């Protein structure tokens, strides 16, 4: 195994995924999805609804409370009124998700524009009804930044509706491109987790799609605790690695929020030596980023809330255990009075880096040549090949609407 993630060859993390194995729609009932279980080198399987019985009492589950926004908008442009697609990625002004979605005046977002050659300049208008009220949503194209654009959104009448309300009425849920179909009415519910609360994602944290209120109640009855992080999933999660090695791949950046009670709860779990299981790769990236949030050195307030791609192998502080590092973070938050932190993480987790905090991962089956598959390999090593071979040979359903797996760290 190369010492640096930069030297990892993406050719070692690919497999043949037949098109018919991609789940185009979810199973009829969320909890009826199948679940592959990997532990101590052994593979078994069952149904997701039995998850509470598979987890030891005292386990801490951590899910992602993010909610998918209606990020895909279609504006008619030109004489033929052929629409261009504006795909909202991240807020630029106001930069905070909650403030931007709650704004009642003009906002600025980083967007992808499909058909941008037909929209060279000027504004585009879209008529939409919101809560029985007819409004006009206006988009003005701004500066191009690489493959994205600044887009200014305003709406009339102004000052009565938030941008989030307008977006919910004017836009649509952005399904992953590999599903190869348009959004359907059922996706409005099924492409959200039952615990989704904080709007901001353009893709669902799909490992959580199998949970139901009944599952969560059964977990509580079993003595399994539930906590939540916020990490807004970006479109970059679908970006395959196209370079021969990871050193040539630019990892996507995603916004996260953490609070003091969560950090304290993780410290308690680590101190007790009890398992921590992350629901999804997004929750895992957020939780593992906590190890690097407290650097206590070159940041004025003692926090590093912008975690870089290579943080897992370039940490510039003396080696500490996960518990010691998170206790440091907890103490800094208490002393500073800053009980809620937000930032961005681009952390890349691979077999060349350590998983510091989590013991288990609940996740779906991911695309070949993806950083998500590398993250799985960070948990189970080369056994990811056995796991995926088993899933293919035994008719498991793949990708966002597919089946589940429960992976324990080797």
Would you mind describing this structure in some detail?
There is one protein chain. This protein has eleven helices and 18 strands. It has about 400 residues and is α/β, with parallel strands linked by helices. Helix 6 (about 260-270) runs antiparallel to helix 9 (about 320-335) and helix 7 packs across helix 9 (about 320-335). The mean pLDDT is about 90. The chain folds into two domains: about 5-70 and about 190-410, QueA-like (3-Layer(aba) Sandwich); about 70-170. It has helices at about 50-55, 95-100, 165-170, 185-190, 215-220, 260-270, 280-295, 310-315, 320-335, 370-380, 385-395, and strands spanning about 35-40, 40-45, 60-65, 65-70, 70-75, 80-95, 105-115, 125-130, 135-145, 150-155, 200, 225-230, 255-260, 275-280, 305, 340-345, 360-365, 405-410. The strands form three sheets. A ten-stranded mixed β-sheet has the order 2-1-18-17-14-3-12-13-16-15. It has a six-stranded antiparallel β-sheet with strand order 5-6-7-10-9-8. A two-stranded parallel ribbon has the order 4-11.
Structure summarized in a few sentences:
The protein has 410 residues and is α/β, with parallel strands linked by helices. Helices cover 23% and strands 28% of the residues.
């Amino acid at each position: 195994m190369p010492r640096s993630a930069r030297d990892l060859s993406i050719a070692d993390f690919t497999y043949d995924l037949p098109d018919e194995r991609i789940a185009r729609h979810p199973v009829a009932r969320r909890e009826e999805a199948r679940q592959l279980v990997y532990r101590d080198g052994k593979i078994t399987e069952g149904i997701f609804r039995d998850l509470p019985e598979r987890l030891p009492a005292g386990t801490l589950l951590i899910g992602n409370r993010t909610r998918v926004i209606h990020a895909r908008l279609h504006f008619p442009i030109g004489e033929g009124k052929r629409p261009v697609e504006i795909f909202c990625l991240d807020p630029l002004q106001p930069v905070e998700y909650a403030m931007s979605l709650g704004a009642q005046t003009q906002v600025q977002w980083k967007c992808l524009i499909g058909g941008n050659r037909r929209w060279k300049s000027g504004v585009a208008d879209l008529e939409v009804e919101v809560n029985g009220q007819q409004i006009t949503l206006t988009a003005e194209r701004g500066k191009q930044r690489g493959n994205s654009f600044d887009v200014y959104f305003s709406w009339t009448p102004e000052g009565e509706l938030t941008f989030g309300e307008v977006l919910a009425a004017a836009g649509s849920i952005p399904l992953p491109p590999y599903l190869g179909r348009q959004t359907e009415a059922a996706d409005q519910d099924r492409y959200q987790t039952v615990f989704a609360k904080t709007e901001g994602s353009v893709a669902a944290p799909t490992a959580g799609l199998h949970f139901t209120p009944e599952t969560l109640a059964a977990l509580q009855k079993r003595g399994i605790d539930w906590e939540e992080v916020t990490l807004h999933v970006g479109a970059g999660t679908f970006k395959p690695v196209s370079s021969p090695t990871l050193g040539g791949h630019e990892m996507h950046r995603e916004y996260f929020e953490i609070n003091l009670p969560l950090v304290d709860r993780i410290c308690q779990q680590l101190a007790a030596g009890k398992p921590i299981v992350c629901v999804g790769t997004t929750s895992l990236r957020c939780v593992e980023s906590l190890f690097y949030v407290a650097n206590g050195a070159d940041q004025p307030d003692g926090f590093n809330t912008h975690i870089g791609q290579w943080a897992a192998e370039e940490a510039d502080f003396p080696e500490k255990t996960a518990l010691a590092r998170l206790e440091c973070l907890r103490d800094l938050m208490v002393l500073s009075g800053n009980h809620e932190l937000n930032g961005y993480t681009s952390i890349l987790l691979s077999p060349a880096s350590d998983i510091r905090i989590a013991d288990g991962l609940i996740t779906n089956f991911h695309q070949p040549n993806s950083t998500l598959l590398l993250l799985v390999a960070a948990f189970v090593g080369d056994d990811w090949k056995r796991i995926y071979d088993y899933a293919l040979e035994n008719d498991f359903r793949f990708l966002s609407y597919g089946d589940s797996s429960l992976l324990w760290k080797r």
